[in-house]
Write a structure and sequence with these properties.
- By secondary structure, the chain is mainly alpha-helical.
- 73% of the residues lie in helices and 0% in strands.
- Helix 2 packs antiparallel against helix 3, helix 2 runs antiparallel to helix 4 and helix 5 packs across helix 7.
- The longest helix is centred in the N-terminal third of the chain and has 28 residues.
- The chain is globular.
- 14% of the residues are buried.
Length: 180
């Protein structure tokens, strides 16, 4: 969270950096972060994914490199948004970000309903590769529903609730209808 706040304050996450600066940060972070993470993956595979190797590699040794890779991915995403994304794509991404709290909790509810026993109970029965379909499907759902929602409302449902509770008064939810 602190790193995210620092990146926001430095204007990295607001898209105000020059394209060359995003490119430089992405390249450097990947060049530093990828080799040790590949070595840790190799170590885990050679150890047969034993509990000790997975715990050590995932929870202890990879943390600084995971953090660096996160900054690298953020730089790459911002670079792509600035250079390749259409205005419509930028609007959908921005809307999805403005509804991050709602999207996060909705994803948790949807995925636990799919995978836990109170829902479809698919935990452990879906292969690793197939899990990407669930992930990409949820991403697509967030991108599809966030913009139309925010076209009609000031906030996402949970963002509205959070603001209303923190300000001790109900905030306006619906945008005024546009008269044509």
């Amino acid at each position: 969270m602190l790193i995210g706040m620092a990146l926001f304050k430095s204007h990295m996450l607001t898209g105000e950096w020059e394209i060359a600066r995003y490119r430089k940060w992405a390249v450097r972070c990947f060049l530093i972060g990828v080799p040790p993470l590949v070595a840790l993956a190799w170590y885990q595979m050679n150890a047969g994914f034993s509990a000790v190797s997975v715990f050590g590699a995932s929870i202890v040794w990879s943390v600084p490199f995971d953090t660096l890779m996160t900054v690298g991915w953020a730089s790459l995403i911002m670079l792509l948004i600035k250079t390749a994304a259409s205005p419509g794509t930028r609007e959908r991404l921005a809307a999805t970000g403005r509804m991050a709290f709602t999207n996060y909790l909705t994803t948790s509810i949807v995925m636990t309903t799919i995978f836990y026993g109170y829902g479809m109970g698919l935990f452990g029965s879906v292969g690793r590769a197939a899990l990407y379909l669930f992930c990409f499907g949820m991403w697509a759902a967030m991108l599809l529903w966030s913009k139309p929602w925010l076209d009609r409302h000031h906030y996402g449902p949970l963002e509205w609730l959070w603001r209303s509770l923190s300000r001790f008064s109900l905030q306006p939810m619906r945008k005024a209808a546009v008269v044509q």
